[in-house]
Amino acid sequence: MGRVSQAQAQENRRRVVETASHLLREQGTHVSVADLMKAAGMTHGGFYKQFASKEALVDEATAHAFGELARHHKDGLDQHAGQRDAAQRALIDTYLSVEHRDSAAEGCPVAALATDMARDGGESEARRVYTQGVGDFAGWLDTEDQDGLTRLCTMLGALVLSRATKGSPLSEEILTTAREALTATD
User: Fold this and answer.
1) Per-residue burial over 130-168, b = 16 or more CB atoms within 10 Å of its CB, e = otherwise
2) 147-186 pLDDT per residue, tens
3) What is the per-residue pLDDT for 186?
4) What pLDDT, on the 0 to 100 scale, is given for residue 8?
5) Predicted local distance difference test score (pLDDT) of residue 65
6) DSSP assigned state of 107
7) Please, how many CA atoms are within 13 Å of residue 106, restricted to the half-sphere of its CB?
8) What proportion of the chain, given as a percentage, has pLDDT over 90?
9) CA distance 117 to 44
10) Quick check: helix, strand or coil at residue 154?
11) What is the Cα–Cα distance from 21 to 104, expressed in whole angstroms?
12) Contact at 8 Å (CB) between 62 and 24?
């Protein structure tokens, strides 16, 4: 079997990181390397040609997920002509939606990775990136009237509870109640 070009190797790595970013948000960091590589359409053996360890991939995939979140915030500002309040309102409406509740793989890394980061307990790069991402997200949600950290905690708690109660009327009620509470002063 021939060697792959440097460009192909970079593309393969990008695909693995992107796939891992989605799978980690959907299934948590306990997902196996074999399952990650299969989902990326690659063999398990190719993993160690690209990454020193699973932890190295988790670090990179976490950074990728938070990069997506930051781009989403920027895109929201661009779509609302730089009007931060309107962009925040749109984000809250999207965040506390049934679609987001049901799409963990494409959703917020803060909610999806919280439990795994709490269990990590160490000083991993993924945990550092996660902590920075939480702070940045809270800062982005700050307004003159509402603290961003409080808003993020409300959004995160509502999303997690809604996912845990999915299939019951309570699930959508949680989303609606939190959305109304966060946008009442808008």
Assistant:
1) beebbeebbebbbeeebebeebbebbbebbbbbbeeeee
2) 999 999 999 999 999 999 999 999 999 999 999 999 986 4
3) 47
4) 83
5) 94
6) S
7) 8
8) 70
9) 25
10) helix
11) 11
12) yes
Q: Give the C-alpha separation, 109 to 112, whole Å.
A: 5
Span 41-60, pLDDT tens digits? 988 888 888 899 999 999 99
pLDDT (tens digit per residue) in 3-31 = 768 888 889 899 999 999 999 999 999 99
Residue bearing tokens 């020193």? 52
CA separation for the pair 122, 130 (Å, rounded): 12
State the Cα–Cα distance between residues 52 and 38, nearest whole angstrom.
18
Q: Cβ neighbours of residue 120 under 8 Å, at least 6 residues apart?
A: 29, 126, 127
Question: Angle at which helices 169-183 and 148-164 pack, to 10 degrees?
Answer: 170
Q: How far is CA 179 from CA 82, 92, 98, 123, 150, in A?
A: 22, 7, 12, 34, 13
Among 98, 103, 95, smallest CA distance to 157 is for 95
Q: What residue has token string 């049901």?
A: 102
Decide if 64 contacts 122 (C-beta within 8 A).
Answer: no
